[in-house]
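Figure 3 (text version): C-alpha cells given as input.
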C-alpha cells in the first residue's frame, strides 16, 4: 500500500534488452536500507526490488505492465515519481493507493490558476463512473483531489489543481497537452463498482 505522496524523483539509467524485463532506476534513497523484495511505487506502478546498489535499485517490468501503463514510461532517461511502501504508523498524508494502474489518461489542457496550474485529463470511458468531484485520484503516483468532472457524451475528463510544491517535487512539472499519465481510481470506488456489478437482483 502507498499514499500517493512522492518522496523522490528517480531516473531510469538502464533498460535491459528483450526478453529481459530488468530496469535500473537512480534514486536519492538510501538503497542499503531497501530490502530485496520490497515494493516501490514507480509513477504509480507497484514494482518489486530485485537488486540494488549505491544510488540505484532494479525492478522487473513485465510485458503486461508495459501494455497497461503510459507509453514511453519505461525508457532510459525517463523520470519516475517514487514512493516506498507504507509502514504501520506512517502518516497517511494522501489517500490509500495500491499501485495498480486502472487506465491511462491524456492531458487535454494546462492553464495557470493563481500560483497553481489547472490540469484537465481525458480518461477512458470505463473509468468515467469511478471519478467524482472532490474524490481522490492518483496521477502518475501522485495523490490529487478531483475538482470537476465533465462529460460531453463522447469524452469524459476531470480537472485537478497542481500546487507549486507538487509541481517542483514530482514529474508533473513536465506535463503538457498530449502527455499520457497512469491513473488509479480511489480504491473505495473500485470495490463499490464491483459490488454493484456482482449484485444479484
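Below: residues designed for each position.
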Amino acid at each position: 500500500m502507498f499514499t500517493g505522496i512522492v518522496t523522490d524523483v528517480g531516473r531510469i539509467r538502464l533498460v535491459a534488452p528483450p526478453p529481459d524485463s530488468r530496469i535500473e532506476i537512480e534514486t536519492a534513497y538510501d538503497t542499503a536500507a531497501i530490502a530485496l523484495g520490497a515494493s516501490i511505487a514507480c509513477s504509480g506502478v507497484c514494482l518489486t526490488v530485485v537488486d540494488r546498489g549505491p544510488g540505484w535499485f532494479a525492478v522487473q517490468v513485465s510485458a503486461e505492465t508495459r501494455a497497461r501503463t503510459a507509453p514511453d514510461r519505461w525508457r532510459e532517461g525517463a523520470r519516475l515519481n517514487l514512493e516506498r511502501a507504507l509502514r504501520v504508523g506512517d502518516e497517511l498524508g494522501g489517500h490509500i493507493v495500491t499501485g495498480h494502474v486502472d487506465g491511462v489518461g491524456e492531458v487535454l489542457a494546462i492553464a495557470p490558476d493563481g500560483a497553481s496550474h489547472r490540469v484537465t485529463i481525458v480518461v477512458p470511458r470505463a473509468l468515467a463512473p469511478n471519478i467524482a468531484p472532490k474524490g481522490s485520484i492518483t496521477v502518475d503516483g501522485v495523490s490529487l483531489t478531483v475538482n470537476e468532472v465533465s462529460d460531453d457524451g463522447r469524452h469524459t475528463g476531470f480537472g485537478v489543481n497542481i500546487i507549486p510544491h507538487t509541481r517542483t517535487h514530482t514529474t508533473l512539472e513536465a506535463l503538457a497537452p498530449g502527455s499520457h499519465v497512469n491513473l488509479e481510481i480511489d480504491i473505495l470506488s473500485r470495490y463499490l463498482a464491483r459490488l454493484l456489478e456482482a449484485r444479484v437482483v
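The mean pLDDT is 91.
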